[in-house]
Amino acid sequence: MQISPNPTNIDLEKSYTREDWQKGYESLKEEFDYWIDDIEGEIPSELQGTLFRNGPGLLDINGQRLHHPFDGDGMISRITFDNGRAHFRNRFVQTPGYLAEKKAGKILYRGVFGTEKPGGWLANIFDFKIKHIANTNVIYWGKKLLALWEASEPYRLDPHTLETTGNEYFHGVLAAGEAFSAHPRLDPSCNQDNGAPCLVNFSIQPGLSTKITIFELNSAGEIIRKKIHHVPGFCFIHDFVITPNYCILFQNPVKFNPIPFALGLKSAGQCINFQNNQPTRIIVIPRHPESKEIKILETQSGFIFHHVNAFEVGHEIIVDSICYKSLTDVEPDSDYRQTNFEANAPGQLWRFDLNLQENTVQHQLINSRACEFPTIHPDKVGRAYRYLYIGAAHHETGNAPLQAIMKVDLDSQTTQVWSAAPRGFVGEPIFVPRPNSQQEDDGWLLFLVYDAAHHRSDVVILDASDFSQGAVAKLHLKHHIPYGLHGSFTPEKFV
Question: Which domains does the chain have, with CATH numbers?
Fold first, then answer.
């Protein structure tokens, strides 16, 4: 079954134009604070709390375009739902690099993914200082609002004003400059904490041998467990998954050559090359403090940015992930706004079955539609689950920008699709359970849609159980929000 409640009934060779898609990559330099009054539909009265989003808000510095959007300064957007109303606020994370470039009016730092300082290689040679951009995720945990970027420590923000208050070191457990990933996982019932929830995260320090640190935080936002592991080889890992007993990380088959970076010829990200003749390694780390044995399994070559979920079945671990055939190179003279989607292999939904007794991996394709940015019911993290929700292409085949939200029923192997095509482009959905709900799909999906026709963004609310009725509500913002990365929801309200 596939439901596509799209009133335009689009059936074109392409569901979008590149010009429309490109408009979402314009900077938003203003900071806003207002109640949203342009609403289609009705905000559910039971929907109470705050949606936080993070992503690059600046794609240029005073007209000097960044070479890659992932190099843009982090901007937090906050949408608070309060008794059928919604309030919007956004602010940039006030990192030293953001403030310095704002004052100078020009690019002062090299970016990880492609941006270089003006002046060619002579201006960049032996400059290893990378700007902390705090642009990847934002979470509210232990009464702390944290902007995350995986290469360094978090920034702490005031959840009411979004003012940046400084770096967060968790009472000194995190060292200055120590990485804290942008992809924490919330364990809803931790075995080691008598069933209390805990936040699990990791950090990577790559090299010829890679140091992997696992952090576990209690509900007060304190790091109560910190464990360091070493694995052979260079690791480029953006996301991971957990089960009650394990952390699982996929070591993508890449090679890093630092020489062009040191000589100012390329960014660090451009020095990473995919090795299609090498296997993907799967690192399985026990979470219990007394368990030290790490297992490393191998599977076919592929590249993974994001995982959906993992769960245990006896001596096996099931992992669902979005897998690409390879990693697309970022060329020094390329323009990301000219991306040829049709020439690149899409991300697709795969399942990996890890047998820890036999050290084997089986894999199968779950859904072939181009997709990214998955979400599930928060109580199902690390547990067996039935439903997942994910950004997807409008058409079932081929590669294209994300214009739709797809619901996948893993039991019945059916899908539902809601599409914003032809002129809408979607971001990561967040699943919010209905209060006191008993069904896994009883709740709402919250996500941003860039509307190219009006050059603005909408906050869209879908009924997660049934897409056929269309959007429950569309909240039209007064402006656009550049394409973002990740976010989270909390039942706390900040108005």
Answer: 20-490 (2.130.10.10)
